[in-house]
Give the backbone structure.
Amino acid sequence: MAAIVPLSHATIMPPRASSSKTTIIAGILAGLLAAGLGAFYLHQQAAPHGDPAPAASSPAAQEQNARAVDALMALPEIKAWSAHIEKASGGRAHGAVMETSPDVRLIDGKPYYDLTFVENTPDAAHRWESFVVSQDGKRILVDDVVSGELISLEQWRKDNAPMQRIATQ
């Protein structure tokens, strides 16, 4: 059986002085680790979405973005969700479409915008659903964040019954 030594009898060793060489090595290792983690994070963010195309801030690009947002806002689900959020919160929260990334996303060689419908409260924006919308607004896909897959509106409506989300609240 091990003996328990009272603290008054224990030998306490003074802390070891750190040399400047140890501090420099630790700083270099921390910097390399941070750079590696940053590169890994950026690679993971780009990988599931394919090769992003650079964003354009030209008037034509802004018009295309507005067209994509308008197409998403025209969905019956988005209109109903927005009205529900407004009514349920007494006007303190609103439904909104937020651009998730400033870069367009290439899907089958065509540019799409990453857009998210959020419940915008005074404290935060809460994501309800994520979408990708073609620049012309004619094609909308749902970005299933759980599976990482893009699904059609028809499949989303069939699998998720999005209108039921507000019927049960």
